[in-house]
Specification:
Number of strands: 25
Mean pLDDT: 92
CATH topology of the largest domain: FAD/NAD(P)-binding domain
Number of helices: 8
Strand content: 25-35%
Structural class: alpha/beta
Number of domains: 3
CATH superfamily of the largest domain: FAD/NAD(P)-binding domain
């Protein structure tokens, strides 16, 4: 027993006498570092306590029903490896401004208020940490809630009702043509979004998560600068979670400053219903927007570089979908790519090449580019914190979402 160590309950925040509700290991088990040992339950949350080392469990010192506090022994462990010293992160030169006092000091900084970021912030606050959540936009929820999944599903629901009413004619039940008030439809979609973002704001307030609105960039492994509409401030932190998400891909050489060339955010804004619309990309986002705009009255063309819609999906699933939707759209061009888009007064003139390319350029009122998203890892000055970012903007992490810098983690789209 001379080489055994006593594993104790670490600092889990402002909790005393927390109940053990589950013991996840038993004597004789071999466990890995960070593997969960026990589950605790407080009046705020449940939490699993990980092992600090890999090794073999020799003796359990707690049981279900025990109430323990910080420093209480959990078990005796025979380590299978020597203690590892966590590497010191590489640091960029620190400016004189960084050496001064920060405007805010926090235990945990979360950069990004999307589904990953706000969930992590709320969980950490439940565990007793002081949390600052930095989000560049005024509302929490990120792309998914504000300009992605939620508004798209709201519009798809409206489209589904219209299409279902239309299809009832085959059963002898006919309705008149729908009268769509585009202003009211847009307002209804925005009400759905506001209701959910308002709920998140209330949850953050209840948990005392401090929100900072602005664009965050690292200055060091323990400091972030935020530029907002009301000026700039600096935040010093012990640990950080990067949850800065991704952005819609813009194709170089296209007239990306022309308002008629839109991404998914522009499509969901529902400014109007164009007569002719090209969807560039036959993935999920492109097909969702095709459904909405076709139902509202647009003539839709879809162009996809790959030989099937929804690349990567099982072709046996895509085949019946393709058979169903192709009769609703003007044309679906597979194994075809857009080579050029010219902005003209009367519309966007698009040239194609490939297996199903038209013989001549086509003119569209709007073109939606839905060819994917790229991570925002290169926007946040991660190198100042010593965080590795690959050439595409992804941040590499281990199985526990830790970056190469021990106190900085990354989650969500930015890690792929």
């Amino acid at each position: 027993m001379s080489n055994t160590i006593e594993v104790k309950l670490p600092d889990i925040g402002d909790f005393e006498q927390v109940e053990v509700i589950e013991v996840l290991v038993k004597p004789g088990d071999r466990i890995e570092a960070e593997e969960s040992l026990i589950t605790l339950e407080s009046d705020k949350a449940t939490m699993e306590i990980p092992s600090p080392r890999a090794g073999k469990v020799r003796e359990l010192l707690v049981k279900v029903g025990d109430r323990i506090s910080q420093g209480a022994p959990i078990l005796m462990l025979e380590p299978s490896e020597p203690a590892q010293i966590r590497p010191t992160p590489s640091k960029a030169p620190v400016s004189e401004a960084v050496r001064g006092n920060a405007d805010l000091q926090t235990d945990l900084l979360v950069l990004g208020g999307g589904p990953g970021g706000y969930t992590a912030a709320f969980r950490a606050a439940d565990l007793g940490k002081r949390v600052v959540l930095v989000e560049r936009y005024a509302d929490l929820g990120g792309v998914c809630l504000n300009v992605g999944c939620i508004p798209s599903k709201a519009l798809l629901h409206a489209a589904d009702v219209i299409n279902e009413a239309r299809e009832m004619a085959a059963m002898g039940v006919s309705f008149g043509p729908p009268k769509v008030d585009i202003e009211q439809l847009r307002a209804s979609k925005e009400r759905v979004v506001r209701r959910l973002t308002g709920g998140l704001a209330q949850l953050a307030k209840q948990r005392k998560v401090e929100r900072v609105t602005g664009f965050g960039r690292f200055e060091s492994p323990n400091r972030l600068a935020v530029e907002g509409t009301e000026g700039s401030l600096s935040i010093a932190f012990t640990d950080a979670i990067i949850a800065c998400g991704s952005s819609a891909v813009k194709i170089p050489g296209f007239p990306n400053d022309d308002p008629r060339l839109i991404d998914s955010t522009g499509a969901l804004a529902l400014q109007d219903v164009p007569k002719r619309m090209l969807i560039l990309g036959g993935g999920i986002i492109g097909l969702e927007m095709a459904t909405v705009y076709a139902t509202l009255g647009s003539e839709i063309d879809i162009v996809e570089l790959q030989e099937n819609l929804i690349p990567g999906c099982d072709p046996d699933l895509v085949r019946p979908l393709y058979k169903r939707i192709k009769k609703h759209y003007r044309q679906i061009m597979l194994s075809t790519k857009v080579t050029d888009i010219q902005a003209q007064k009367q519309g966007l003139k698009v040239s194609f090449e490939g297996k199903q390319a038209p013989d001549k350029p086509q003119l569209y009122d709007r073109v939606l580019v839905a060819v994917g998203r790229s991570p925002n890892g290169r926007w946040i000055n991660a190198e100042a914190a010593g965080v590795e970012v690959d050439e595409r903007g992804f941040i590499p992490v281990d199985a526990h979402m830790r970056t190469n810098v021990p106190n900085i983690y990354a989650i969500g789209d930015v890690v792929g």
